[in-house]
Design a protein that fits this description.
Structural class: mainly alpha
Number of helices: 30
Distance between the termini: 33 Å
Low-confidence stretches: 1-38, 263-270
Strand order of the largest sheet: 1-2
Largest sheet: 2 strands, antiparallel
Strand content: under 5%
Mean pLDDT: 89
Helix content: 40-55%
Oligomer: single chain
Number of strands: 8
Shape: globular
Length: 653
């Protein structure tokens, strides 16, 4: 057996040399390994195998497999015709080793474990790929990975404003994915929800742009309809046909949204945004907090405001701005509600504006809603959208394959907006199950999908893959639920005294205040300043210096703000950061996997663990040389570290 040793800074040269040899075949000088770095030890919570799954995920309908294959085949048939028409050579099919890695990254957001890879490669069943897809789609990892995706789209942040406690909304989004709630259902609820965050967490969507009713409309249309109308807030759109008057007509549907307890509203100058005023009981509590709580006042007032934040709706006329400059209306003139296209469904014609807006948004007759999500998820799977950018649908920016986009739109509607089932069809296509190809978006040639576009892992995929090489249980802590937040945060402001509020505030701070929550993570799953935990369960947004932010995780201020651009800090983090040290600690998945096998099998085990395939003859020779250059423990550690720093590890091929 080989007992791994932690690499130290001075042995980094050896790891780099191994990487050069393994990837280029070139020889390089090796530095002698120095003393072993002091062990910190992995937390018991992450090295122990969990007694039960992290969560119960909605089951997949295995009986629908034949229909899935038929729907996938129809997409492949269409693409094959386009390949022939445009003389495109399809990429070679994935072999099993490539597939098992790709599908885990696609559906679970991480590389497969050694055991998962070996079991799949040894499986001789003809339907093992379908079975793997179904298993992953019903796994907690799927929930985590797609939560990360939606967190980027919806700008999920724990404190978008100081007086908002968004944990219940974040938990609600994750739970909607876990239960496989159909997309149109949860969108409609987000657009119409009332109440406080822990009473009805879906109100978080409306509160994300609290105090900014016009940007709320802009962001909603961008996310849900793939259309950029934001410029029309201030003037007619310079690059599209939307006018400022049309923007205000659409905004009139949601102008009655209120976000504070009580309905009193300050009078405002014509065209200015009205500011909600809390009811007298809230004002009294704020006044008393300022008079009696000293240094604690600021945080306590924010806590009172969080409890006073409650979404409600009362139809209210919307007026044009006071400086409106076009001839089709007068400044400060009220605008009538009008949709961008289509009609308000008959079933809600007598409902309030917000209900009408939501019903129109998710209506089967509003194909742009289905078209947008069809295109978004096609891009997620294939790397390039049929319309790019995905939120820039307009006549001057047509789809690269309009017929395919309409086919996919029909499929989303036919599946009743079951997005998990839609993704299941996409990853079952032979087009998806081909080798990735390099695509240059500046080339001016439409992408014909001979295979998915070559991509780097997202920050969350890199993190969860590395944590998977360390932790047997990366779910040792999960986000608090709405009920857990309510227990320590909810206050009835109409009856509470300032001392009642103060006591509840102390409970909240002790349980879920930023410092307390981070101390809990450190205690349960901390290692050298890092938390060995799923990216989906981490505080958000993380500080700039964190590994996830270094690798491009969004700050959650802009829609889809995540990036996959390489940087120098990423290289340093991979070469000698604390997270890579953790892989070689005793008790880590990588450590236990390698030491559980005979020394003669070490090279194969390392390659299957990190890259999900056996080494080529040249790679095997270079790896064996590395293992025999010094002691096997250091050589094996160098090999793991070197493979982790190859482009093959970071790219989804």
């Amino acid at each position: 057996m080989i007992r791994l040793r932690l690499l130290t800074r001075s042995s980094l040269t050896a790891a780099l040399a191994a990487a050069v040899v393994a990837t280029t075949g070139l020889a390089a000088d090796r530095a002698k390994p120095s003393r072993v770095a002091p062990r910190v030890g992995l937390p018991a919570a992450v090295t122990a195998v969990a007694d039960e799954p992290a969560m119960k995920v909605a089951a997949i309908n295995a009986g629908r497999r034949d229909r899935v294959c038929g729907e996938a085949a129809a997409i492949d048939e269409h693409l094959a015709a386009r390949w022939e028409e445009h003389a495109v050579e399809p990429s070679p099919p994935l072999d099993d080793a490539q597939f098992v890695r790709r599908i885990h990254l696609e559906l679970a957001g991480r590389i497969p474990t050694y055991e998962e890879t070996v079991a799949f490669l040894r499986d001789t069943a003809s339907d093992k790929r379908d079975a793997m897809i179904e298993r992953l789609l019903a796994s907690p990892d799927y929930v985590s990975h797609f939560y990360n995706y939606w967190a980027d789209v919806l700008r999920l942040s724990e404190r978008p404003q100081k007086n908002l406690l968004f944990e219940p909304y974040l938990a609600w989004v994750k739970d909607s994915i876990r239960t496989n709630r159909h997309y149109d259902d949860w969108v409609r609820e987000m657009l119409t929800a009332d109440g406080r965050l822990w009473e009805n967490p879906a109100v978080g969507f409306q509160l994300r742009d609290d105090g900014m009713p016009l940007p709320y409309v802009d962001n909603t249309v961008r996310v849900l309809l793939g259309t950029q109308i934001g410029c029309a807030q201030c003037h007619d759109h310079p690059f599209d046909h939307w006018t400022q008057h049309q923007f205000y007509e659409l905004a009139a549907f949601t102008a009655g949204t209120r976000t504070r307890l009580g309905n009193a509203v300050k009078s405002a100058k014509p065209g200015a945004e009205a500011k909600p005023v809390p009811p007298p009981a809230v004002r009294a509590l704020v006044k008393e907090a300022r008079e009696t709580k000293g240094k604690k006042t600021g945080a306590l007032v924010q806590f009172i405001q969080a409890n006073a934040t409650s979404v409600s709706f009362h139809d209210t006329p919307l007026k044009l701005p006071h400086d409106y400059q076009y001839d089709d209306a007068k400044p400060s003139e009220p605008v009538a509600r009008e949709l961008l296209w289509g009609k308000v469904p008959a079933s809600v014609r007598n409902a309030d504006g917000r209900e009408q807006f939501a019903a129109w948004m998710v209506s089967r007759t509003n194909r742009q809603f289905a078209r947008t999500i069809a295109n978004r998820l096609w891009k997620k799977v294939m790397g390039v959208g049929l319309v790019e950018p995905v939120d820039d649908f307009r006549e001057e920016n047509p789809a690269s394959d309009p017929e395919l986009l309409e086919r996919l739109t029909n499929l989303v509607i036919r599946l009743d907006f079951d997005l998990r089932e839609y993704v299941r069809v996409l990853v079952s296509t032979s087009a998806y199950q081909r080798r990735a190809v390099v695509y240059d978006p500046t080339a001016g040639v439409p992408f014909r999908y001979p295979g998915p576009a070559l991509r780097r892992m997202t920050a969350e995929q890199v993190w969860d893959s590395i944590v998977g090489l360390i932790a047997r249980n990366p779910w040792s802590v999960q986000r608090p639920t709405a009920a857990e937040i309510a227990e320590v945060a909810a206050v009835d402001l109409r009856t509470a005294t300032i001392d009642d509020v103060d006591r509840q505030f102390d409970r909240f701070v002790a349980e879920y205040g930023p410092g307390a929550y981070q101390r809990r993570l450190t205690k349960v799953c901390g290692y050298r300043g890092q938390w060995l935990l799923k990216a989906s369960e981490m505080p958000t947004p993380l500080p700039l210096g964190h590994f996830l932010r270094q690798f491009g995780q969004s700050d959650r201020e802009t829609i889809e703000g995540g990036r996959t651009v390489p940087t120098i800090p990423q290289i340093l983090a991979m070469f000698n950061g604390p997270i890579t040290h953790a892989m070689l600690e005793e008790g880590s998945v990588a450590y236990e996997t390698v030491t559980a096998h005979a020394a003669d099998d070490a090279v194969d085990v390392v390659f299957l663990t990190v890259l999900s395939h056996e080494p080529s003859p040249d790679d095997r020779q270079a790896a064996v040389e590395e293992l025999t250059a010094s002691d096997p423990a250091t050589g094996c550690g160098n090999l793991i570290w070197a493979l982790l720093n190859t482009r093959e590890f970071l790219f989804i091929q």
